[in-house]
Amino acid sequence: MIIYFSGTGNSESVARGLLKEGERIADWTEEISVAADERVGFVFPVYCGDVPKGLIEKIRAVRIDAEYVFAVATAGGNAGHSLNSISYLMKEKGIDLDYGTCLKMPDSCILFPTSAAETSQLLDTESARVNEVAAELDSKKIVRFAPKKPFPFQTKAMWFFFRKVVGRISEKSVDEKCVMCLKCVEGCPVDNIEVRDGKIVFKGKCEDCYRCIQSCPERAIRFGSLTVTDKTHYIHP
User: Fold this and answer.
1) What is the DSSP string of 74-103?
2) Strand 99-104 with 63-75, pairing
């Protein structure tokens, strides 16, 4: 079984590439109380050097029964603290994270756009790189990480600066270009966006996955001072 968290499609694509025939795949928002299989894996993007908060809560709520547990992070840079966090979450359950790795993918964060040339190169080699990880998983390779509590000071500081200072991404809004196509409402994984009095409203429980701002066809959504441009637009093909 593979449980994935995906904002703009990178992690879902990787998760599906790792999926074995007959194996179940589940979006992190699905109701799952038990993850029981020969192997259980987590595929997720790295946000501010760590695991998305919503996935941490999901993992803590799920009972895991598996012979082999793995985690694959996708990131524009590196895994940061995230694989240590997953190892910690497994230790809370009395089990080991047997394998962890990070696959570099185009960054959907508007603050750190991946160049067009590198995006093309990463997508062109994605399948081969995923197959390499799949082969290691098939052989039940052991790559362990020291368990470390999620959201250390560095992660908290990065989130503070992104949300409140650099970009002010916590201040989400929609401008006059909005045509009420409702793609943002329908696509939000945590139901954070709704229509109120004929306007798009953000309710304050955002995972900052960038799905809404990157999928808006009119580029009408703002994350504080940030809007999507040709240079910063990215959705996995």
Assistant:
1) EESS--TTHHHHHHHHHHHTT----EEEEE
2) parallel
User: Residue 190 CB: number of other CB atoms within 10 A?
Assistant: 13
Is residue 196 within a helix (H) or strand (E), and if so which, with residue range?
strand 193-196
Contact 53, 207 (CB under 8 A): yes
**61-77 confidence digits (pLDDT tens):** 999 999 999 999 999 99
pTM attached to this predicted model = 0.94
Residue with tokens 């900052």: 208
Q: Which two tokens stand for residue 229?
A: 């441009």
Q: Determine contact, residues 64/40, Cβ cutoff 8 Å.
A: yes
* Radius of gyration over every alpha carbon of the chain, rounded to an integer in angstroms: 18
Q: What is the dihedral of CA 10, 69, 94, 87, to 10 degrees?
A: -40
For residues 229 and 111, what is the distance between their CA atoms, to the nearest angstrom? 11
CA angle 112, 115, 121 (to 5 degrees): 125
Domains and their CATH numbers in the chain: 2-149 (3.40.50), 167-223 (3.30.70.20)
Compute the distance between CA of residue 107 and CA of residue 112 in angstroms, rounded to an integer: 7
